[in-house]
Write a structure and sequence with these properties.
The chain is mostly helical. It folds into 4 domains: 65 residues, no CATH class; 191 residues, Lysozyme (Orthogonal Bundle); 62 residues, no CATH class; 52 residues, Membrane-bound Lytic Murein Transglycosylase D, Chain A. It is 52% helix and 5% strand. It contains 21 helices and 4 strands. The protein has a two-stranded antiparallel sheet. The protein has a two-stranded antiparallel ribbon with strand order 3-4. Helix 9 runs parallel beside helix 12. It is elongated, with a radius of gyration of 43 Å. It starts with a helix and ends in an 8-residue tail after the last strand. The C terminus is likely disordered.
């Protein structure tokens, strides 16, 4: 028998002869030469043979064979590429149309907002409360207010500084822009308005309600007199009332004036008697019954001013006011004088600082008229810090102003101590102490001392 060493020697010899004869290893791997491949396999020469490295050629051959068997493959590929190109072109064309449409709408909106009287136009476009011009009280107040067009014009001019800010906030919250007319009823758009019941500011917050909605009140600072903070607090309160009364804005406004508990109580009474529970059917106080019709009367006048001979001046659709942060006490009167402006330019806008000097511990925001903001900002930054007035008594405080004779409240049928105290912004304990009452029982017709006042104040509505 042939040994393993002899076989290996023979195989090596045969491989050497093949290579010497001019045969290459890849030639042995040719699948067509089956006999030579079998001989090489028996002799163990396949380890010298390299595997074919032509995968790309094989793929090309397979593709050609597929094309021969499927002549429509190339056409399908071409159609697919055309469809992809058409889809991309359609998407680009659609995006361009949407962009052009947005630009057109934006341009139209900008033109509407930038023409003469644009803020008034934004006010009219945001009206959401239905018209009640056929209600007797609304017609009465509309006729009464329209008798003096100059007064309406003065009110409109006074609101020009704040109206853009108020309408912007209403649009941001998607609330009816009729609420921008509420300060006409409350305070005639006066920051420093005070009422006999202790309500203060443009939105006439009493102390307790102001604190409830985050309006600080100290001896040197009263946030109820800040137009920005009081506006946000008022809209928070109105939104809360509107949720309570399920979207009825007339009931929400009535509750803003008389208190939500009183309105809820009157609704419960009417419901128990099988009566209607809308605003016009409730037995509310006389002031509240006139409060909402006054607002609706202002709406009728401002909705059609030419009919009532009122010439409204245009209000530019830009911010009339701006705010800056200053972390030092600033004398507002001195800053205005150094900037060459009237002395009350800053103190009238920042009436929340009761001494005319800012108190950064409560608020570091100062309101500036936008047209003079750059000059005032430079002056304020250069001024040295003013003296701290936190511990001084407030010069414009309602309590200081109200020393003198007492305000008398005549008890009506259905009144109680809690309702009277809440209406006038004092506690029940103080009310009982002022009137030497030992119990909570009061009879109709009794006269109660509420607070002291130096002189009767004018109504701002």
């Amino acid at each position: 028998m042939t040994t393993k060493k002899q076989i290996n020697a023979t195989a090596s010899l045969v491989a050497t002869l093949i290579l010497w004869a001019g045969f290459s290893a890849p030639a042995l791997a040719n699948p067509d030469d089956r006999q030579l491949q079998n001989v090489a396999k028996e002799l163990g020469l396949l380890r010298y043979v390299q595997q074919p490295a032509v995968p790309q050629k094989r793929q090309v051959q397979q593709a050609r064979s597929q094309a021969k068997h499927d002549p429509y493959a190339a056409k399908r590929q071409q159609i697919l590429q055309q469809n992809i190109a058409r889809k991309k072109a359609y998407q680009a064309r659609l995006a361009q149309q949407q962009r052009a449409k947005y630009q057109k709408v934006h341009k139209l909106r900008t033109q509407q907002q930038n023409r003469h009287g644009n803020v008034w136009n934004r006010l009219y476009q945001g009206f959401q409360i239905r018209n009640y011009n056929k209600q007797p009280l609304v017609r009465k107040f509309t006729k009464q207010f329209s008798k003096d067009p100059r007064r309406i014009q003065r009110l409109a001019d006074r609101s020009s500084q704040y109206l853009y800010m108020v309408v912007n906030e209403l649009n941001r919250r998607r609330m009816p822009t009729e609420l921008a007319l509420l300060p006409f009823v409350e305070s005639a758009y006066r920051n420093k308005a005070y009422s006999h019941a202790g309500a203060a500011g443009m939105w006439q917050f009493i102390p307790a309600t102001g604190r409830r909605f985050g309006l600080q009140q100290t001896r040197s600072y009263d946030a109820r007199l800040d137009p920005y903070k009081s506006t946000k607090a008022a809209f928070d309160y109105l939104q809360r009332l509107n949720r309570q009364f399920r979207g009825d804005w007339l009931l929400s406004l009535a509750a803003y004036n008389a208190g939500e508990y009183r309105v809820h109580r009157e609704i419960a009474k009417n419901r128990a008697r099988g009566k209607r529970t809308d605003f016009w059917s409730l037995d509310l106080p006389k002031e509240t019954k006139q409060y909402v019709p006054r607002l609706l009367a202002f709406k009728e006048i401002f909705r059609n001013p030419q009919h009532f001979r009122v010439q409204l001046r245009g209000i530019p659709n830009t911010h009339a006011l701006t705010q800056i942060r200053v972390n030092k006490a600033v004398d507002l009167k001195k800053a205005a004088l150094v900037a060459g402006l009237p002395a009350d330019t800053l103190s009238s806008l920042n009436s929340g600082f009761l001494h005319g000097i800012t108190t950064p511990r409560y608020s570091n925001l100062i309101i500036l008229p936008r047209q003079h903001a750059g000059r005032l900002n430079q002056v304020i930054q250069r001024l040295p810090p003013a003296a701290d007035v936190h511990n001084k008594p407030a010069r414009r405080s309602y309590k200081r102003r109200s020393r003198g004779r007492y305000v008398i409240h005549k008890v009506r049928r259905g009144d109680n101590l809690y309702r009277i105290a809440r209406k006038h912004g004092i506690s029940v304990k103080r009310l009982k102490r002022l009137n030497n009452l030992r119990s909570n029982k009061i009879k109709p017709g009794k006269r109660l001392k509420i607070a002291s006042k130096a002189r009767a104040r004018k109504r701002y509505s």
